[in-house]
Amino acid sequence: MPIRPAIIGNWKMNGSGKEVKLVSRFADFLDKHKIAADVMICPPATLIGRAGGAIKGSKLKIGAQNCHVAASGAYTGDVSASMLKDAGAKAVIVGHSERRAGYDETDKQVRQKAQAVIEQGLQSIICVGETRQQFNKGQTLQVVGRQLRGSIPSSATPQSTLIAYEPVWAIGSGRTPKPADILRTHAHLRKTLLKLHPKEGAKFKILYGGSVSAANASDILALENVNGALVGGASLSFKDFTTILRSV
Ligand code: PEP
Asked: What class does CATH assign to 6-246?
């Protein structure tokens, strides 16, 4: 059975009330066009409720970008997976490199977050990726393999968990790895998933993320073991994101 691709927009810390209209436009587009992919937008937490309310009944899903490990408690400024679920999120990105680097998130913390997300019945989108320096030293496979093994909970299933390979140096830079490099890294992630989950490893979605654009999406999405894309900047543009969706 071929894997149904997923295209997920990560808005990062961008967007206010007026951008809810853009989410509605994506929902209308999905309802009018036959797109062979699961599509999700992850806006800032402040917009999850409003965005979800605006697109009720649509094929478009709303996700979140991070959560706390705990369900509730004295964690000023944080939100839990159950709160995100309550707000209408269907998935949570965990271990994005901007959080691994900016907040010193470890594989263990990422795994605990993914576990908290899965326990709420939401999907966890676990990000892995090497830095430019690690890429230059030829350490990509070693780094992403270690991150994946350390970040994926043993309870993860292809339904509950997606993996996103995002080279740190490709994010927001307009640069992407060569197709052969993406192929090799995704093949390694698949092999690692098969070792961890011999029965279901072949079914996990492995997304590529990092400067996916209207211009390069069809080439990247055509690569073996690339089962979709995590899209940052281009998901804030109606034209760019819908071009990416059409290229699935
Ligand atoms: C991201 O940060 O998840 C991302 C993929 O960003 P961009 O597409 O802007 O490189």
From this structure: alpha beta
